[in-house]
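As a next step, we paired sequence with structure tokens, yielding the entry below.
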Amino acid sequence: MSAIIEVHNLHKSYAGLRVVDNITIRIQRGECYGLLGPNGAGKSTTLRLLLGLTDPDGGTITLLNQEVPRLAREARLRIGVVPQIDNLDPDFTVEENLLVYGRYFGMSEREIEARLPMLLEFANLTGKREAMVPTLSGGMKRRLSLARALVNDPDIIFLDEPTTGLDPQARHLIWQRLRELTSQGKTLMLTTHFMEEAERLCHRLGILDHGRMIAEDTPREMIRKNIEPQVVEVFGDQVETWAQAYAAQFSQRFEVSGETAFCYVNDAQPLVAHLQDRPKFRYMHRPANLEDVFIKLTGREMRD
């Protein structure tokens, strides 16, 4: 099956610094592909390259069988974008934001009007059709941005951190809507710092660091291949002293960060039994998750 997004050996430098370093990605129709990475890893530059907003220094990009950037304008007619920061027009109503945006794609008012009920229902904004944008909550604005990205019935939707700043209810509603889109055959490319979001939504993931693709797989396989199956987090004063004395006896690998020791284990029971005899320490036993993989591959240090 031919890919709907094909990227081969893509690279881009600024002031001599390689910010995208020979990335290759193939995404099939109906996939949700997550692009993860610390701040400065190259995610935003990669999206700009794919959308034809920045010219690459080398490599090839094909979206919907159109070469980018040469035919980026034609490709963008079949693409929707949900930016990281909402750029809705505050002087317009919900309906007017959708109408004006549809005109950018050469759609007639009749075509846009025919899609409005579906878009408003999809975004759970039917009752807010005449509301001005400043009166909307953060979750409503985010859902309106998603609806706006669907005005032209795109084949591909790019979503840059679509649920940042939302409460759990709004986040879960958007997750539900995104799953509906992939079930309809839409292709999603998602960047996010929420590992739970990536694990829930994405069929496959790529992790970028320093411009390079350092891992790519399904969420489940990425966890299985890169991390021990169980994690015991140990909290308390002098946890570093405890970890240096005991953690290696019970875990395949451990790290200490602040007042927490992260113990990665194949079998947690011996460690849990040990901790039950040391009530001054609190602990949490859980399955390994995508965040553990992300931290292992990219490190715990802060990125600017």
Observations:
- The chain has eleven helices and 14 strands.
